[in-house]
């Protein structure tokens, strides 16, 4: 078994596979690592980490310094691992990714759970062995070499209590198996440290009684009672008094030793389980969506679980909405809520086997089977006939989700990918906010008074954010943190599309980073298609455009991949039943950013192919309406494919009606990109359509854009025609 190992049950230590210490650095890197390890496999917010490292007066550069410490830790640990990074960025902060064998804290919890499992199944010797191994992991007080942070208090208290409980269970097993002498010796030392813990006194009485030292057992009770009365003014608890009476009268049955020693005291029912993250206090809008989703989860249909999926583009608020709904329906699931983070958008999504092990431990199973199928069967058995809501956040696909589906209850899944192959699931797509909801969210964060005072600039900010909740939250937080700013300042800074994503960034909240998580999951060709869409505009386009960009006849597979990843939206069909697709405005900005790294020659060629495709379709449609005065035609006419051309222009006038706005925008793009010949060719084609429809004003504006790119002798015939028959 290779890889780095961490020790927190005692002084903080990091060991490589050869058990050689790995140097970590000074106090702050060690405090950072300790905090992450105390919260192993759970994201720790940036604010918490800053508070740990700078408890009194954090510097202005605290977050930047934190990133430096994280980077340094990663660098030191990188060479010691043969897997993913031990420290990963995970909103709202960072988390340490470790397995039980790598961290003594997790190993202790796992051994303790196994011991309890064995004990419940009447295997005391094996249970005692597991507890002995768990006790051996403790080398002192947790993190005894570091100055404790107030942020650690709850976890350190839990650990110390767990250690003492494990010790009591271990001693109890010694008594149960007749090892009275060792139990008595250890108990006397523990009582010296914990003089008012009645459970220890109770065990000492039982051990003394079991070893035939009845008088000492009774003296022990007298000693405890005197201490409690003199120092605390209370009598011993009822179970101690009852045990004293049994020993005194000589009527302590054999089974009472087991019962009184707490054999079942630590057997806890895992239900109800409450694992949901906190609800967002400023959750805004989505009333209809929340109602529909709540209905899907609480409605009983058939014998299987109710399964609902929430899908949507990056930053639309899927996880936030799912957690809000889960809290709203808590009363319908009296056995609790199980929450699992699937990390589908990370570089290493969580394996179903590991997720099942996590779920089984949460449900009280300490002996986790080895195979995925065995774990899944045990998981379903533990949840059988229970009303539990399982929340699976950030799913990669149906293959990751399948083993985690229970046989009863309800399941709520969030994903950036369409999960339509998931049998029995009801699918709901989460869109951006409506204008009123978006305004309310901005006002809740930035302040109602400021938003009311500058309604036009508030609207402009929301438009620049594309009504995307993540972007609005960042914009609102920026304003909240800059009280001297007017909304106009941010509105004007967001106007420039080339800078917009950089503006929508605040500490670890970043729209671009959210997009990156989805983009890096794409295949090379699909990623190239996404980038090339940034050549066009953020208005709806027909599907054949993607084939032209990629220089392919048909690109339906790539189109479907982008839609399934929610990076491209199917917005509907136009008047000629042609599906149309659209990039969200901020995704368009992101595509433009990525495109800057592609060679100029390839970008220009791709754009020319699309322009040529529009000209091909326009030429074919014009041929059925009116002969072209210019006599021009497109150079190659390879895009779209012939079958697509025939289908689209079967009704030429209807095609022009459907594509009028797209053609007009194409004329402008071609002119601005220096594709003069294609720009003028498209402009020429549009003249006939606008003339037939009597839309001379619209045609004049597009005509000027095309011809401002320069005059070409090839179009003189057309120019003369404009002079002769153009509108007055």
From TrEMBL:
Gene Ontology biological process terms, A to Z: phosphorelay signal transduction system; regulation of DNA-templated transcription
Statement: the UniProt record of this protein carries the keyword DNA-binding: yes
Molecular function, one GO term: DNA binding
Name of a matching Pfam family: NB-ARC
InterPro entries in the cross-refs: AfsR-DnrI-RedD_regulator, Apaf_helical, BTAD, NB-ARC, OmpR/PhoB-type_DNA-bd, P-loop_NTPase, Sig_transdc_resp-reg_C-effctor, TPR-like_helical_dom_sf
Similarity field: Belongs to the AfsR/DnrI/RedD regulatory family.
Protein name: DNA-binding SARP family transcriptional activator
Organism, scientific name: Halosaccharopolyspora lacisalsi
Lineage of producing organism: Bacteria, Bacillati, Actinomycetota, Actinomycetes, Pseudonocardiales
């Amino acid at each position: 078994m290779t890889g780095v190992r961490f020790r927190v049950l005692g002084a903080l230590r990091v060991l490589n596979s050869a058990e050689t210490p790995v140097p970590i650095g000074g106090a702050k890197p060690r405090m950072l690592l300790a905090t992450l390890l105390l919260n192993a496999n759970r994201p720790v917010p940036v604010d918490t980490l800053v508070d740990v490292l700078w408890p009194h007066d954090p510097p202005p550069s605290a977050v930047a310094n934190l990133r430096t410490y994280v980077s340094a830790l990663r660098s030191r640990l990188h060479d010691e691992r043969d897997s993913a990074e031990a420290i990963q960025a995970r909103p709202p902060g960072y988390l340490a990714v470790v397995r039980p064998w790598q961290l003594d804290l997790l190993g202790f919890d796992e051994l303790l759970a196994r011991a309890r499992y064995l004990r419940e199944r009447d295997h005391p010797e094996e249970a005692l062995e597991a507890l002995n191994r768990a006790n051996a992991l403790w080398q002192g007080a947790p993190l005894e070499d570091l100055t404790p942070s107030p942020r650690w208090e709850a976890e350190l208290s839990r650990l110390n209590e767990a250690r003492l409980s494990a010790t009591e269970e271990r001693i109890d097993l010694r008594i149960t198996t007749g090892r009275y002498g060792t139990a008595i010796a250890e108990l006397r030392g523990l009582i010296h440290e914990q003089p008012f813990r009645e459970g220890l006194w109770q065990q000492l009485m039982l051990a003394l009684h079991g070893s035939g030292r009845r008088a000492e057992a009774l003296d022990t009770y007298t000693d405890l009672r005197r201490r409690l009365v003199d120092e605390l003014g209370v009598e011993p608890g009822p179970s101690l008094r009852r045990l004293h009476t049994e020993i005194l009268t000589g009527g302590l049955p054999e089974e009472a030793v087991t019962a009184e020693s707490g054999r079942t005291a630590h057997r806890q029912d895992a239900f109800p389980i409450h694992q949901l993250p906190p609800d967002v206090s400023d959750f805004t809008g989505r009333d209809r969506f929340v109602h529909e989703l709540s209905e899907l989860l609480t409605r009983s249909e058939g014998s299987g679980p109710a399964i609902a999926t929430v899908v949507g583009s990056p930053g639309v608020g899927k996880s936030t909405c799912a957690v809000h709904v889960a809290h709203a329906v808590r009363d319908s699931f009296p056995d609790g809520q199980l929450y699992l983070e699937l990390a589908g958008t990370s570089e290493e999504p969580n394996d179903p086997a590991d997720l099942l092990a996590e779920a089984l431990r949460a449900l009280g199973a300490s002996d986790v089977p080895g195979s995925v199928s065995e774990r899944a069967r045990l998981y379903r058995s533990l949840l059988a006939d229970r009303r539990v809501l399982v929340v699976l956040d950030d799913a990669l696909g149906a293959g990751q989700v399948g083993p985690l589906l229970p046989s009863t209850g309800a399941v709520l899944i969030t994903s950036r990918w369409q999960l339509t192959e998931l049998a029995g699931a009801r699918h709901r797509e989460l869109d951006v906010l409506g204008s009123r909801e978006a305004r309310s969210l901005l006002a809740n964060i930035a302040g109602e008074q400021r938003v009311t005072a500058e309604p036009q600039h508030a609207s402009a900010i929301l438009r620049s954010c594309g009504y995307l909740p993540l972007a609005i939250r960042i914009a609102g937080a920026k304003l909240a943190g800059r009280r001297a700013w007017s909304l106009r300042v941010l509105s004007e800074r967001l106007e420039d599309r080339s800078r917009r994503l950089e503006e929508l960034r605040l500490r670890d909240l970043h729209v671009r980073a959210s997009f990156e998580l989805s983009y890096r999951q794409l295949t090379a060709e699909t990623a190239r298609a996404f980038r090339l869409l940034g050549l066009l505009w953020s208005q709806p386009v027909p599907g054949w455009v993607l084939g032209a960009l990629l220089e392919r006849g048909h690109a339906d597979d790539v189109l479907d991949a982008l839609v399934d990843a929610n990076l491209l939206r199917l917005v509907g069909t136009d008047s000629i039943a042609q599906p149309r697709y659209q990039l969200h405005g901020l995704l368009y900005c992101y595509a433009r950013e990525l495109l800057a790294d592609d060679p100029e020659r390839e970008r220009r060629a791709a754009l020319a192919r699309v322009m040529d495709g529009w000209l091909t379709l326009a030429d074919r449609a014009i041929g059925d309406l009116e002969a072209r005065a210019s006599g021009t035609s497109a150079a190659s006419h390879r895009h779209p494919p012939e079958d697509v051309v025939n289908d689209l222009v079967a009704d030429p006038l209807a095609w022009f009606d459907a594509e009028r706005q797209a053609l007009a925008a194409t004329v402008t793009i071609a002119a601005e990109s220096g594709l003069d010949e294609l720009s003028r060719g498209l402009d020429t084609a549009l003249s006939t359509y606008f003339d037939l429809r009597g839309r001379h004003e619209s045609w004049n504006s597009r005509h000027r854009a095309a011809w401002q790119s320069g005059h070409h002798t090839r179009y003189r015939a057309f120019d003369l025609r404009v002079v002769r028959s153009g509108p007055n």
